[in-house]
Amino acid sequence: MPGRSSCSLLAIEDVTKLRVTDARLAEQRKELQRSDRALDEFASVASHDLQEPLRKIFSFGERLTASLGPALSGESLHNLERMLNATSRMRTLISDLLTYSQVATRARTFAPVNLTGVAREVISDLDTTIAEAGGLVEVSELPVIDADALQMRQLFQNLLGNALKYRSKGTPPVVRLGCSCSDHMHCTITVADNGIGFCREHAEKIFRMFERLHGRAQYDGSGIGLAICRQIVERHGGTIAATSSAGQGATFTVTLPVRQHLSVFMS
Q1: Inter-residue contact 232 to 103 (CB < 8 Å)
Q2: pTM of the model
């Protein structure tokens, strides 16, 4: 229109930094994928190349025990027994290390999981241990959450197994598996026992790899079980903690999201 002036607005945005950041993130994702593949390859090698010699050592050791056992005595018999025990511990250690390494590299996608059903299956697997100890495991109603069902089974297996293992002498173990949901976003699962417990200052230490508060002569195990628990819980976006006093039992508290984001389902 005559007498009217017009103007144009031009916006210029420098996206150089954004592109550099995107390129760095892409490179980091590639590096993480390469690292995961390398770890997965190592796990495959370890599962066969390390286990096979141990199987042979254990097999030949059992043959020696069967053929020469009655003729052996004293130090010779003791050395043979120590060899078999060491081989068995090494097999357990390698198996647990593989489980730890595969929490992320061979994880399943998340789906709705009935935790009550998972817990009851684990308790059924522990029937013999519970009966031999004269123990009791009580289970409250647990929710259905988005999770990796196999890893939830590993989590309960380790927590309930530990509660039964570290029991007080002369006292039947009582383990209570409970749950509370303060909101619709998270659930808090507790595993409480009446066992030997541990000193308060060790509450963080017990979740580290190979950390043991007791000698193998007292309690067997690889010292990896609770580290696996922490890795599983953190993969699900949750937290795990323990509270206890020596001789007063222990309580493990696991907080997990009830629902997972879509990106986690697709990972």
Answers
A1: yes
A2: 0.69
Domains of the chain: total: 2
Q: Which residue has the higher pLDDT, 105 or 183?
A: 183
Beta bridge partners of 253: 190, 241
Does 4 reside within a domain?
no
The pair phi, psi for residue 19, each rounded to 5°, is -65, -40
Domain residue limits at 213: 111-265
Tokens 């541990």 label which residue? 198
User: 86 and 117 share a domain?
Assistant: no
Domain finish residue from 105, 126, 147: 105
Q: What phi, psi does 239 have (nearest 5°)?
A: -135, 155
Give 16 or 118, the one with higher predicted confidence.
118
Between 137 and 223, the higher pLDDT residue: 137
CATH code (residue 168) = 3.30.565.10
* Locus of tokens 């303060």: 182
Other CB atoms within 10 A of residue 173 CB: 21
Residue 2 lies in a domain: no
Strands 239-244, 174-180: parallel, antiparallel or unpaired by DSSP? unpaired
Distances (CA, A) of 25 to 18, 80, 267: 11, 55, 16
